[in-house]
Write a structure and sequence with these properties.
Largest sheet: 3 strands, parallel
Number of helices: 19
Strand order of the largest sheet: 1-2-3
Radius of gyration: 32 Å
Strand content: 5-15%
Length: 471
RNA sequence: GUCCCCUUCGUCUAGAGGCCUAGGACACCUGGUUUUCAUCCAGGCAACAGGGGUUCGAAACCCCUAGGGGACGCCA
């Protein structure tokens, strides 16, 4: 059997983490079985579907690298096909016209709730033949009344739901448009979807869809219902509930592979392994091993994984990735050293690309202001002599890492100070107090002139902050 | 309310009846390395929801209870 999976979002908002994980698992399953993965845009709700949302989905999938094997399918372009099927169902006697008003439906529902029953359509029009087709009406599917629907979910196991729990769902609205359960069934069938992988909020729809499939004598795909991802209040992640859109993660400086890696570990694991390349995921992922229980989204762990990815990234790729963030900070790369060596030194000090851009900032341009604590601790009158000596020393010393280190050590020795007493003020002088690598390599990259200039500024700063103190 | 699904450290998870005195990871805490921060290293804290069975033996199997989530739309 050829494996074919699909990701079928509705373009009614941002593409969030939950959707992305569903997409990822579907994609992984297709890839590992040499199958196909396709994207289907479920835009039958013309009221709420927007082009912006479609673009966000497309962009998000592209950013993540979850490529589809066919052009995306838009349900809004397949209405003829849906209508054909609805008419067929009508002809077969598996569907019927219903002109119940919304008011009546509401009343019925309320009564049922008052009786503590599950609200369902009562089948009022099921046997009627006198519905006026010139008046507004809908078409409903004749769901079987007896028996039950049973299916083996790859993740959840055997699930059985009695038909008496189901009602006659609307398959064509009064405006003539088809509804979700109908379109899903038709599309999965037409597209030859072998495995339906989706969130477990769809478990309840599955028996309805199977009944529809049976009425159409279509083959029934395998189902795999993924547990939900919940917010830290253990409420379901939804569009208005802490559900950050994927593109925001891009903007925040996350690597797509890191996001994918975090997501693949939500509900799935492979021994004690935490880091998986996309290649490894494809190889090792197993739908059968996906957990049944929901998991809570943990931003701290995402951050950790992102940091791991930043650390293992090669410097040239990282430099490319960080450039947009550098730009956003208004940093002019022409006013300092090459970016790559700077990245190499700073990459273990950043959890996101945004962080990375920030810690690179002091290499370019001048120090606008010192970090308060660092300045208070290190830019004191006591530090002035050392800085003055360094200023002089650096004028002519060899400008290599080694040479810089020797210069500092020379000052330390001559002034009978500890290494820290000299190096720390220097560090604050040239970095402003930002986290930075070894002082010699940092100074080396910043460059002789700039380092000396910054030392001078630090001395001025010391004088200004301690006007009372004589030299 | 009804139906469906779920339940191991705070969080993600390992666990397929004896390997479990329950393992790993994030977070947190303590120490070490270090020239700041980070990295790195060593250590610590911390869980089988509760109750009944089944079994020589149960975190694992069954039942009940409790708790959580989902569905119950002319949304998807």
């Amino acid at each position: 059997m050829k494996v074919k999976t699909r990701f079928a979002p509705s373009p009614t908002g941002s593409l969030h983490i939950g959707g992305v994980r569903t997409a990822l698992f579907s994609w992984l399953y297709a890839k590992q079985n040499n199958g196909e993965f396709v994207l289907r845009i479920e835009d039958t709700d013309r009221e709420r579907s927007t082009q912006e949302s479609v673009d966000v989905i497309l962009e998000g999938m592209a950013w993540l690298g979850l490529s589809a094997d066919e052009e995306p399918i838009y349900q809004s372009q397949r209405f003829d096909r849906y209508n054909e099927i609805i008419d067929q169902l009508l002809e077969q006697g598996d569907a019927y016209h219903c002109d119940c008003s919304r008011e009546r439906l509401d009343t019925v529902r309320q009564e049922q709730q008052a009786r503590k029953e599950k609200p369902k359509y009562d089948g009022c029009c099921r046997q009627r033949t006198d519905v006026n087709l010139n008046e507004p009406h809908v078409i409903r599917f004749k769901n079987p009344i007896d028996g039950s629907v049973k299916f083996d979910d790859i993740i959840k196991g055997s699930i059985e739901i009695a038909n008496r729990e189901l009602d006659d769902l609307i398959i064509r609205r009064s405006d003539g448009s088809p509804t979700y359960n109908l379109t899903v069934v038709v599309d999965d069938w037409d597209m030859d979807i072998s495995h339906v992988i989706r969130g477990d909020d769809h478990i309840n729809n599955t028996p309805r869809q199977i009944n529809l499939l049976k009425a159409l004598k279509a083959h029934i795909p395998f189902y795999a219902h993924l547990p939900m991802i919940l917010g830290d209040d253990s409420k379901r992640l939804s569009k208005r509930h802490g559900a950050t859109g994927v593109l925001q993660y891009d903007l925040d400086g996350f690597l797509p592979e890191a996001l994918l890696n975090y997501l693949v570990r939500l509900g799935w694991s492979h021994q004690d392994q935490e880091i998986f390349s996309v290649k490894e995921m494809v190889k090792l992922f197993s739908l059968e091993q996906v957990n049944k229980s929901p998991s809570i989204f943990n931003p701290d762990k995402l951050l950790w994984i992102n940091q791991e990815y930043i650390k293992m990234q090669n410097d040239s790729r990282l430099a490319e990735l960080v450039k947009p963030f550098i730009k956003m900070l208004g940093i002019d790369l022409n006013r300092g050293p090459e970016l790559e060596p700077v990245i190499q030194l700073q990459k273990e000090r950043a959890k996101t690309l945004k962080d990375l851009a920030e810690v690179c900032a002091f290499f370019y341009g001048t120090i606008a202001e010192y970090e308060k604590k660092a300045a208070k601790k290190n830019l004191k009158t006591k530090a002035k002599k050392g800085l003055q000596a360094l200023y002089k020393e650096f004028e002519s010393s060899a400008w290599t890492q080694e040479g810089i280190k020797k210069s500092i050590e020379g000052v330390v020795e001559r002034q009978q100070l500890s290494f820290g007493q000299v190096a720390l003020p220097l560090r604050v002088a040239i970095t402003g107090g930002a986290p930075s690598p070894g002082i010699d390599e940092t100074a080396f990259l910043i460059g002789r002139d700039q380092v000396r200039k910054r030392i001078l500024n630090a001395i001025i700063f010391i004088d200004q902050s301690n006007p009372e103190t004589p030299n």
